[in-house]
Amino acid sequence: MISISALAETLPDVVKICYGESDQPTPEFICRAAYDATLAGHTGYTHTAGSRDFREAIASKFHELQGVRADVPNVLGTVGASAGIFVGVRTCVGPGDNAIVISPTYAIFATCVEMCGAEARLVSLVRDGHRFRLDLDRVRAAIDRNTRMLILNSPSNPTGWVIRADEQKALVELARKHGLVILSDEIYERLCFEQNVAPSIARFDPELEHVLVVNGLSKAYNMTGWRLGWSIGNERLIGLMTKAAEFVTSNPATMTQQATIVALRDGEPYVAQLRADYAKGRALVMKELAEIPGVSLPDPEGAFYAFPQIEGLKDSATLARRLVTEGGVAMAPGVAFGPSGEGYMRLCFAASEKTLRSALERFRNFMLKQ
Ligand SMILES: Cc1ncc(COP(=O)(O)O)c(C=O)c1O
After folding, report:
1. Which residue from 163, 252, 313, 351 has the fewest beta carbons nearer than 10 Å?
2. Domain tally, the chain
3. Last residue of one domain, picked from the residues 249, 265, 281
4. Which atom of ligand 1 is nearest the CA belonging to 216?
5. pLDDT digits (tens, 9 = 90+) for 43-80
6. DSSP letters of 216-235?
7. What is the pTM of this model?
8. Are residues 73 and 153 in the same domain?
9. Does one domain contain both 107 and 251?
């Protein structure tokens, strides 16, 4: 995936829909809040987990959106969701352990597990007509006495899958039975095309005994470069994760914490607009891909990715390279999201209509010549 974007950056005329971000900047009211906070002196260290008002804002938004009560000790602010994932995994698994990773998925999860000396057990989603679904028997079969975690991302990068309530309930039951922590990456919770927010798995574990939620501002507020995320979990786990974060990143940037308070408080109209814009991009992509022979697209229920399956495709990395060099369009190869992503390509529809149209036209022309 990194090699595809690096290749695309070296060539003059490549339309890039390979990245996991939009081409729009952060909204002005959030930039202004960071500027004001900086001038007001929010420039020193805070508590590693973040300042009290910042953690309160996160806890109260979680309650507002998900109906699950959290308090300051349940919240750890992190340098992007990525740092939350790393310290979460680092806190729960070590050599000899294993963690279940529902895949295809963002590569960071399995990599973090392996960096901690543990085994990542990839459990594939099942393609079921227009959507993906979780095969609970596969999950059960992958769990043994060394399993410590189950890692899940819904709405999902790259598949657009949104976990169903019965699947959430079943996973929480499994976690209770086997004493697992479910790391639930919900960074795309606001980008759900059926509803205002994708329901958190924490609704089935409101005491947060087994669920650790990871989230952040990157995707729903166009703030990928600000590096602001958070984790919500039980006090003991958050306490341990905070100790780990102290020696890796310490607190997320102090003025960014203040801007987060403003984003969460005043950002609802912005998020609603963003979702409406992405819904248009989604509709365009669904329509255009449906017209290309040999391409079949599971409905992207959430996030901002389409994950079309290409008939007969055995080597998505090579196709991705050829699309860049011969087709002038950069997409991510499905295999970058695990072996079960092979045969698929990922494209991001958070781009402007002009960029999307041009990318889809190039993709179509290339595919028609094969
Ligand atoms: C599922 C998922 N989690 C986490 C991240 C990274 O988030 P952050 O920018 O907050 O580190 C991404 C970015 O693509 C993602 O797709």
Report:
1. 313
2. 2
3. 265
4. 10
5. 999 999 999 999 999 999 999 999 999 999 999 999 99
6. ESTTTTT-GGG-EEEEE--H
7. 0.97
8. yes
9. yes
